[in-house]
Design goal:
FAD; 5-stranded mixed beta barrel; FAD/NAD(P)-binding domain; FAD/NAD-bd_sf; alpha/beta; 5-stranded parallel sheet; about 475 residues; 21 strands; oxidoreductase; Enolase-like, domain 1; disulfide bond
């Protein structure tokens, strides 16, 4: 007899496991299917984010930043240490331990919420039936009243730079190097490319990043992008814009990379090449031909604003649907889908989803850029405050960057907040909360911020919008 569940979730990444837990919190009988397998051959919950993305990359970013600070900044604090060395094996062991703890934690959460965690492949059939194929077993059919598809995304491979067994790698491969490459090429200056490039540059690699677009960080505010580009250049990252890779081939002397830029045909040879040109929805083997689910030309599952697919009772959330490929966006979609299944009113404000790049300095933003507001035709005003004028930032020896706020002239609503600087990924949360409640610039101006703190930069930027900054000259 086939198993039956109120909700079957396919995928146990940040979107899937959170959806499963929320559904279980509503008293529903839930199963969560996932087939992720790590390089050691072991299966684990958590998807790309915990196993090969967000978490391991942040672990390496933290380790490499501490190493960089010990080598270059400690002496400014009066700390004298001998020349630091990095034990790459120990760094990687620490990273792997963090990943194991967190992925094991998800398995524990599923068990604690009485969710049946199924290790294997899930495939949606017609009539909300799911074919489950265990990793070491035969396919079986599961009945579901509701299904949530949360299968995530996978790196895009370039035909001109196919991945090899270690010389030309994807983002996961770049997290697994057992030695610092003398030279490293990165294709793509987006979030992933910048973070991975930063890790190995701090540890001593000569890093060249090839970006096909002419604008650096085109998705970010122009002022923030300019500041970030200057800082990365000072750190030794060689970012070449308008550089389109035409071929990459691994050989005995490294990887030869051919690319075109404004000066014509160019080439370089690097020890390792990371291809980080984006990700595509991962729906391989997910949908039976008669499942009835619509997808777009890029393979994303089509959904409405509440993540409903073309089949009643079937939802899709996370990276496999439209919108930014962000773990927190996927998690909140999972919560929304589970709440809707349980009959509750639920929605997600897609206008107020923060983005963060965990480089040093960090980059974070929420809402519209100045250019986007300008194109909308709405009258606006801006204010900014540099961390160079922040007492806390000076004490931390991290004064690069600024906070910038874009607000409406008519009703003073905060339309966008953009930060490049220390702890930007934490500071942005104040802006997210403010914008979720449609706060005005004056609301932030009249909110008391602790002194000395980095959050004062947010306060001063809000004051600067109306030329009322107290600790920096107004325009």
């Amino acid at each position: 007899m086939s198993k039956s569940f109120d909700v079957v979730v396919i995928g146990a990444g940040p979107a899937g496991y959170v959806a499963a837990i929320r559904a279980a919190q509503h008293g529903l009988k839930v199963a969560c299917i996932d087939e992720w397998k790590n390089h050691d051959g072991k299966n684990a919950f958590g998807g790309t984010c915990l196993n090969a993305g967000c978490i391991p990359s942040k672990a390496l970013l933290e380790s490499s930043e501490l190493y960089h600070r010990a080598a270059h900044e400690f002496k400014k604090h009066g700390i004298r240490v001998s020349e630091p060395t990095m034990d790459i094996a120990a760094m990687q062991k620490r990273k792997a331990g963090i990943v194991r703890q967190l992925t094991g934690g998800i398995a524990g959460l599923l068990k604690a919420n009485k969710i049946e965690g199924l290790v294997g492949h899930g495939k949606l059939l017609a009539g909300k039936q799911v074919e489950f194929t265990p990793v070491d077993g035969k396919p079986e059919t599961i009945n579901a009243k509701h299904v949530i598809l949360a299968t995530g995304s996978t790196p895009i491979e370039l035909k001109v730079a196919p991945w090899t067994d270690g010389s030309i790698v994807d983002s996961w491969g770049a997290l697994e190097f057992d030695a610092v490459p003398k030279t490293l090429g990165v294709v793509g200056a987006g979030v992933i490319g910048l973070e991975l490039g930063s890790v190995w540059a701090r540890l001593g690699a000569k890093v060249t990043i090839l970006e096909a677009m002419d604008d650096f960080l085109s998705m970010a505010d122009r002022d923030v992008a300019r500041v970030a580009a200057k800082e990365f250049k000072s750190q030794g990252l060689d970012i070449k814009l308008g550089a389109k890779v035409t071929a990459a081939k691994a050989g005995s002397k490294g990887v030869k990379v051919d690319y075109d830029d404004k000066d014509g045909k160019q080439s370089m040879t690097v020890e390792k090449l990371v291809v980080a040109v984006g990700r595509r929805p991962f729906t391989d083997g997910l949908l039976a031909d008669n499942a009835g689910i619509d997808t777009d030309e890029r393979g994303f599952i089509k959904v409405d604003d509440e993540c409903r697919t073309s089949v009643p009772g079937v939802y899709a959330v996370g990276d496999c649907v439209r919108g930014p490929m962000l773990a927190h966006k996927g998690s909140e979609e999972g919560v929304m889908a589970a709440d809707l299944i349980a009959g509750e009113v639920a929605e997600l404000n897609y206008d107020v989803i923060p983005s963060v790049i965990y480089t040093s300095p960090e980059i974070a933003w929420v809402g519209k850029t100045e250019d986007e507001v300008k194109k909308s035709g709405r009258e606006y005003k801006t204010g900014s405050f540099p961390f160079a004028a922040s007492g806390r930032a000076k004490a931390m020896e991290q004064t690069a960057g600024m906070v910038k706020i874009v607000s409406a002239v008519d009703d003073d609503e905060v339309l966008g907040v953009h930060i490049v600087g220390p702890m930007a990924g934490e500071l942005i949360s104040e802006a997210v909360l403010a914008m979720e409640f449609s706060a005005s610039t004056e609301d932030i101006q009249r909110t008391v911020h602790a002194h000395p703190s980095l959050t004062e930069a947010m306060h001063e930027a809000a004051l600067a919008v109306d030329n009322r900054a107290l600790n920096y000259p107004n325009r």
